[in-house]
Structure formats: structure tokens, C-alpha cells
Specification:
The structure holds two protein chains of two kinds. In chain A, strands 1-5-4-3-2 form a five-stranded mixed β-sheet, sandwiched between helices. Chain A is of the alpha/beta class. Chain A is built from five helices and five strands. By secondary structure, chain B is of the alpha/beta class. In chain B, the strands form three sheets. In chain B, strands 7-4-3-2-1-10-11 form a seven-stranded mixed β-sheet, with helices on both faces. Chain B has a two-stranded antiparallel ribbon with strand order 5-6. In chain B, helix 1 packs parallel to helix 2. Classes of the chains: A alpha/beta, B alpha/beta.
Chain lengths: ~110, ~250
């Protein structure tokens, strides 16, 4: 499954980093502490968070996550978006709260197995 | 030029986590005993106790800056300083505008009262002060800058409510006049992470109890104890400088 498939299935908005939409998705991670994400997220995860600071993209890039999804309609800061485009990390959005979005992603990824 | 000893991070009885012993009188007494020149009163998201401590400091020959330890939307704690009541009132109005409103439960979180010189209660804050502001880090910096204050992310090394914990690392281009290191950090770690190259470093005790006042100091080389001189020292103008005592 690619990031693009996840975008279609979950009805996500695409804010930037479109060049990364073909990345392969292998799992998910949910956390709003970037220190925790640095320690525990895995390559290929879709990372769900409410943080919008540009360090999100730096951490996403470092951990080689597939994409970042911002919850509750939150928009990325302008420099976050610029860096997402540069690093080719899709910066996505959902109106859903974290619990609901993570549940849907979990079902989607498990049905795909 | 003189060298001043400053404790730039002190909570009072107003912070829910602050000891009820942290009255203005007790804080000034500790500062006198420990030969401090400058204090900064930095309660969580409130300036209500600043005025009384500033007045008592003036009488005791100690400069007291007022401000707050604000909590950004990312839940990064940041120190803010002013040396005049006009600036402090601007900050308070801004805090009142952006603090996310949850009612305090003193039995859960602690009392949030402010007091006069004789420790009579002057008022009680009903909103929970440890909540976040609905403003992100950059918005907080810009607002404080516009108001004429000094802005410094707090205890940047700490495993909670710091740039490191909330945002993974200190953004190398972080917008701030300085960065505060916590009493728990070693000079080796500060240098290894390159924090001393990013911004001038500050230190404060983060005292919640009287005995902690003055246990973690900033040494400030400048002409006087006004906030303008602090800004000049943070900008390293004309031979002025600041450094945490542990980094000497």
C-alpha cells in the first residue's frame, strides 16, 4: 500500500510533499512528543500527530516515515510545509481526532495484509 | 561595567505547584541571604504575583524582573521577562486572551493565590495555570517581542515541557533571545549538543521551594540591572555577556 492509497481510502487532505505520495506504507505511529517519535517510530510508518512545527518534518525525514498526518483540521506551519516539499515527505491532514483516524488506519492496514 | 548574579526562574505561591512558603517576603529574604542581584518571577502563565515581589525587591536593593513561564501550544515552557509594570500588564492581557480555559481544582493541582507583603491573600486565579496557550512557539516569540519583553525557552534539556521533549531537538534557528538550561544538565552535555553555539544561555533555579532560590545562577556582565541592559548583554554588545555559572 502506498501513501496515495491511504490518502484515497481515508479521505485525507494533501498539504504538501506530493513527491512522496508513492512511498510504501508498512505501519503507523501515534505520538505528539517528537522526542518519543525519534526513539520509537519505524521506517514506513504513517505518523499521526497534532504538532505542526517544522521539526515534525525533520523528525519524519530522520525516521524515514512514509507520511505525516495532522489531526483535527490542523494546518502545517508555513515553514513546515516548505520543508515537507523539500524533503518529499507528504504532509497530510484529517478533520478526525487522533483516536478515530488511528482506528481507521489500523483497519485499513490490517485488511491489506 | 558590573557583574551581577541572577536567578532567572522562580515560582511563587501563585503557581499551583509552588510551595505556599514561596511568598514575596520569603523569596526576597532568600535572595538577600544568597547575595543575589537580580531575580525573575516566572509563574506559570500568570504575572499576578510580580508587582508585590518587585516592590519588596526595590526596598531590599534587589532588582526583580517580572514575567511568566508561558506554555506554548506545543507545550514548550518559555521564560518571559519585563522590568516595568506596563510591560507586565501587556503580557497579562495577552495571557488572558490565549490561555485555554479549564477551571483549577486546587485539591488536584494546588492553590493559585497571590499575596501581599504580609502574606494576606490578594486574589485567586480560577483558571488552571498549567494549561497551554492557544499560540504556537513562533507566535509567542513574536507577541513577546512586540510587547518589548525578553523570550527564552525554558530548561531546554529537560525530559518534559522542553524544546527537546516536545519538538525532538532545539531547532538551530529557534527565535529567542536566549535559551535556559536546567539545574540538572552538565556542561559537557550542553557543549556536546551545541546549545552554547545557538544562543546565549541562561540559568535559573526553577525554585518551587524557598531553599532552592539561588541554586542555579546566570552571571551577567553589564552596566546596570535594567531589562535594556539584559537585552544588550544577550546581544553581546560592547563587551557585555551572560553565562550560566555552571558553564564558566
Amino acid at each position: 500500500m502506498t501513501v496515495n492509497d491511504v490518502v484515497q481510502q481515508l479521505g485525507l487532505s494533501i498539504y504538501g510533499g506530493e513527491k512522496g505520495l508513492g512511498r510504501s506504507v508498512t505501519g503507523g505511529y501515534v505520538s505528539d512528543l517528537l522526542s518519543d517519535v525519534m526513539g520509537n517510530a519505524s521506517e514506513g510508518d504513517v505518523w499521526i500527530t497534532l504538532q505542526t512545527h517544522k521539526n515534525v518534518v525533520a523528525v519524519a525525514s530522520l525516521k524515514e516515515v512514509a507520511a505525516v498526518v495532522l489531526v483535527k483540521g490542523l494546518k502545517p506551519d508555513a515553514d513546515t510545509l516548505a520543508q515537507g516539499n523539500e524533503e518529499e515527505i507528504p504532509v497530510l491532514g484529517s478533520e478526525l481526532e487522533t483516536f478515530d483516524l488511528a482506528g481507521r488506519l489500523y483497519v485499513l492496514l490490517n485488511d491489506d495484509k | 561595567m558590573d557583574t551581577f548574579r541572577a536567578d532567572l526562574h522562580i515560582h511563587t505561591v501563585l503557581s499551583p505547584c509552588g510551595s505556599l512558603e514561596m511568598s514575596p517576603a520569603r523569596i526576597i529574604q532568600e535572595a538577600v541571604n544568597k547575595n543575589l542581584d537580580i531575580l525573575a518571577i516566572t509563574d506559570h502563565n500568570s504575572t499576578r504575583q510580580c508587582r508585590v515581589v518587585m516592590e519588596m525587591g526595590r526596598k531590599a536593593g534587589i532588582t526583580v524582573w517580572g514575567g511568566a513561564e508561558i506554555n506554548t501550544r506545543e507545550e514548550v515552557h518559555c521564560l518571559v521577562f519585563f522590568d516595568d509594570m506596563a510591560g507586565i500588564e501587556r503580557l497579562q492581557n495577552w495571557l488572558d486572551q490565549w490561555l485555554m480555559v479549564i477551571k483549577n481544582r486546587p485539591d488536584y493541582f494546588g492553590d493559585q493565590v497571590w499575596v501581599d507583603e504580609e502574606e494576606n491573600i490578594l486574589g485567586e486565579e480560577e483558571r488552571l495555570l498549567i494549561m497551554a496557550l492557544d499560540r504556537n512557539l513562533d507566535q509567542c516569540y513574536e507577541a513577546v517581542h512586540e510587547m518589548g519583553g525578553v523570550f527564552a525557552p525554558a530548561h531546554i534539556d529537560r525530559p518534559s515541557n522542553s524544546l527537546t521533549s516536545q519538538l525532538g531537538f532545539v531547532p538551530p534557528d529557534v527565535r529567542a533571545e536566549g535559551l535556559e538550561i536546567s539545574p540538572g544538565v552538565s556542561p559537557e552535555e550542553v557543549r556536546a549538543r551545541g546549545w552554547d553555539k545557538m544562543k546565549p544561555l541562561l540559568a535559573g533555579s526553577d525554585a518551587h521551594q524557598p531553599e532552592k532560590v539561588g541554586t542555579h545562577l546566570t552571571i551577567m556582565k553589564m552596566k546596570n540591572t535594567g531589562l535594556e541592559e539584559c537585552k544588550n548583554a544577550l546581544a553581546r554588545k560592547g563587551g557585555r555577556y551572560v553565562f550560566p555559572r555552571i558553564m564558566k
